């Protein structure tokens, strides 16, 4: 027994022996755990003295049960359980305790062993706190987190989906993501990008909300692979960028529109004409430019004032617009000079349009705010894209020259570029 006592003293785990709840033996590790001066200092104290008031009842019940479980000898140890313990110095510790009924020197006793879990408990608390922080962040995130399987079926979607798409997460989970894309081409382009690069960042697309409204979204995602390297799905986030897109669209509109007439401004018109020119050359399709310039517009300003002049410009551009197809574009090149871009149009058709514009302008019944009636006329110069044209500027120049010739020969008329080899080309 003496040898065994020496061994128990050397044991790193805390061991206590109690009889009628009074400590009759304590090893060095238990003195260290309870911050007692020595093992002897613990003798005569009850074990319950050290237990935190909130854990006292549970502790007494367990010791009572374990004592009763013994039938004339060693009983079954109870399951280890954590208890808050106050040390002799008043420090709080979390201790994992297990006890068993024993018989020592012919009398029943309870043998307890304890392990200090204070540190582990702190780690758990930190983990819990970090988990709670993560959850809070996840719940309040503006972005919607989502994960699909290899077939595109949504496995998980974050709570942000309520705000962005108006659905509860469970209404989305289990369905394929395709259902929420108004244009399948968006989803196809997204899948192709993921297949090629394994990820996409700030990918633009559109989605349909539960209430039917189409919103602009931006997606950042990456492909998932299983441990065999097989494609296992997609994980990422998307966010509602409708406001940003609307703002961008508005800025784009402002940057490309002439404020007075609402027609395309000079820079945007020339950009579009450049693109149309390149496309016509590539595809070998026809294209015409029609230059328009109001006649003696200075006299309108001089007679009625600049504001009346502005109203004439607005009325004139609306009258021009009314004669055109949706694919034609009116650009305000400056002042009272306009240009009409007529893609996929031959000279004869463009001349018909020009003649209608001239007649329409002539027929406009204008009236000042003060009620004075007047009318205006316009001169037009038409040029058709030629195989020999090396740049858009060549075409613009020829349309300009024609306009000059219309002005010189009396105004209120159309002049067609004479260098055109189109058989429908005429100088009116
Ligand atoms: N009201 C108004 N007038 C403008 C605007 N831009 C240019 N103008 C005027 O348009 C007139 C153009 O005059 P001119 O270039 O001499 O040409 P015109 O009088 O139309 O004569 P022709 O072109 O030779 O038939 C000038 O009086 C400009 O002040 C505008 O935004 N608003």
UniProtKB/TrEMBL annotation:
It comes from the Bacteria. Residues 54-82 are annotated as: Disordered. Signal peptide: none annotated. Residues 201-253 form the PAC domain. SMART domains: GGDEF, PAC, PAS. InterPro entries: DGC-Regulatory_Protein, GGDEF_dom, Nucleotide_cyclase, PAC, PAS, PAS-assoc_C, PAS-like_dom_sf, PAS_4. This is Sensor domain-containing diguanylate cyclase. It comes from Simplicispira suum.
């Amino acid at each position: 027994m003496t040898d065994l006592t020496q061994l128990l003293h050397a044991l790193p785990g805390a061991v206590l022996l109690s009889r009628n709840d009074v400590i009759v033996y304590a090893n060095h590790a238990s003195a260290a755990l309870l911050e007692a001066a020595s093992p002897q200092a613990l003798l005569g104290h009850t074990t319950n003295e050290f237990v935190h008031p909130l854990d006292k009842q549970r502790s007494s019940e367990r010791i009572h049960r374990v004592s009763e479980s013994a039938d004339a000898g060693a009983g079954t140890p109870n399951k280890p359980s954590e208890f808050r313990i106050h040390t002799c110095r008043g420090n709080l510790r979390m201790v994992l305790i297990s006890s068993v009924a024993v018989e020592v020197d012919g009398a029943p006793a309870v043998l307890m062993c304890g392990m200090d879990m204070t540190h582990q408990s702190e780690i758990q608390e930190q983990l819990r706190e970090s988990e709670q922080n993560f959850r809070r962040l996840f719940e309040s995130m503006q972005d919607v987190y989502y994960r699909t399987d290899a077939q595109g079926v949504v496995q998980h979607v974050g709570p942000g989906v309520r705000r962005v798409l108006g659905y509860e997460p469970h209404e989305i989970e289990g369905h394929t993501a395709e259902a929420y894309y108004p244009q399948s081409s968006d989803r196809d382009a997204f899948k192709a990008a993921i297949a090629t690069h394994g990820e996409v960042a700030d990918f633009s697309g559109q989605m349909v909300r539960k209430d039917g409204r189409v919103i602009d979204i931006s997606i950042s995602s990456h492909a998932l692979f299983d441990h065999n390297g097989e494609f296992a799905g997609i994980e990422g986030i998307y966010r509602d960028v409708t406001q940003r897109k609307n703002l961008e669209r508005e800025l784009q509109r402002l940057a490309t529109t002439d404020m007075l007439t609402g027609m395309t401004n000079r820079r945007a018109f020339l950009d579009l004409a450049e693109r149309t020119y390149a496309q016509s050359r590539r595809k070998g399709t026809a294209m015409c430019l029609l230059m328009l310039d109001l006649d003696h517009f200075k006299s309108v300003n001089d007679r009625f004032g600049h504001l009346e002049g502005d109203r004439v410009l607005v009325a004139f551009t609306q009258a021009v617009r009314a004669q055109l197809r949706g694919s034609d574009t009116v650009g305000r090149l400056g002042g009272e000079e306009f240009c009409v871009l007529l893609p996929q149009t031959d000279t004869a058709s463009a001349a018909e349009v020009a003649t209608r514009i001239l007649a329409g302008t002539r027929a406009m019944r204008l009236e000042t705010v003060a009620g004075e009636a007047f009318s205006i006329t316009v001169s037009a110069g038409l040029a058709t894209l030629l195989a020999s044209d090396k740049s858009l500027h060549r075409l613009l120049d020829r349309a300009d020259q024609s306009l000059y010739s219309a002005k010189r020969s009396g105004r209120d008329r159309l002049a067609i570029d004479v260098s055109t080899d189109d058989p429908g080309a005429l100088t009116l």
